[in-house]
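Molecular record:
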Amino acid sequence: MNNLNLAIGLLRQRLTAAAATSTSAITQATRNYAAKPPAAGAGGKKKKLGKLGPIMEKKIIPVETDANKLVNYVCGSNYMKTGEDVKIKPDAEYPDWLWTLNTERIIPLDELDPNTKQYWRRLRKMALRRNNQLSMLKKF
């Protein structure tokens, strides 16, 4: 019986010693995290941090207010650093089909001719949208 009590006592000592060393190892591991990086420029602006990193600041794009330039040029058509915007030509210099394009509303499917590609493309697009909506209603 004495030997049994001695063995249990030694076992308790080992378990408590192992638990004490493992908790100290855990506390050491939590203390060794990397230091936060220093702020970029001590006197400069700090970037705001969002959930996914620094937030981009909005750029203010200048808007053309000159009426003469708005009437005679396609503002914003020059995307290069050099050069100027495209000058608007008289209507006679543009092709005739340009003036027949539909810019007002989308023509309903009932008004389209079934013998045209446009009719069948629209019909296919509507069917795909309907099938996608129905597939979202399924549980799995």
